[in-house]
Amino acid sequence: MLNYEIRPAEDADLQAITDIYNEAVIRGGASADLEPVSLDARRAWVDSHQPRGKYPVVVIEVTDAATGARTTAGFGSLSKFHQRAGYDGVTELSYYIAGEYHGQGLGTTMVRWLLDAAVERGFRHAATIIYADNAGSVALMRKFGFTRFGLLPAAVTTAGDDAPHDMSYWYKKL
């Protein structure tokens, strides 16, 4: 069992957020970016979450029980679903967990935190877009009661793979 804490992202977390995101880009199947992104690009992404009280960016830190060392194992966010004000009751959630921590329940922990945060902030719906062949994320969406409401066939490529992948669109009424 991992000891973990979810907390707001700080400037000191930007390198870990960038590294975790770029690992997902290189691995493929979790981001439509085809090349790793810069620290400045990730900083701009974090800064775009305004107001931060409504659109948080958080990290999940794990603590090694033996040494007490803390490691950023993932991050997540609630984002504006659409720029038009009529959509303000809908938020888009996203999360990335470092590969070495996959299969240890941190994705579940992060999605639970994000959904609770969405409810606390008064959102009516949470939505997300995932690769349709990303079995782990599909299973996680089903676990939390999300409904797939759309499929965009052959929509996106991924790093190291020119074959187009389907994108699936999911929502959950909060």
Task: Give a verbal description of the structure.
There is one protein chain. This protein has helices at about 15-25, 40-45, 105-120, 135-145, and strands spanning about 5-10, 55-65, 70-80, 90-95, 125-130, 145-160, 160-174. A hairpin with a 2-residue loop joins strand 6 and strand 7 (about 160-174). A seven-stranded mixed beta sheet has the order 1-2-3-4-5-7-6, with helices on both faces. It is of the alpha+beta class.
Major β-sheet profile: 7 strands, mixed
Spatial strand order of the main sheet: 1-2-3-4-5-7-6
| Structural shape | globular
Average pLDDT: 94
Count of distinct strands = 7
**Structural class, judged by helices and strands?**
alpha+beta
Instruction: Kindly report how far apart the N and C termini lie.
Output: 29 Å
Q: What Rg do the Cα atoms give?
A: 16 Å
Q: Percent range for helical residues?
A: 25-40%
Stretches where pLDDT falls below 50 for ≥5 residues?
none
Strand content: 35-45%
Number of helical stretches of at least 4 residues = 4
Instruction: List the helices and strands in order.
Output: EHHEEEHEHEE
Please give a quick description of this structure.
With 174 residues, the chain is an alpha+beta fold. It is built from four helices and seven strands.
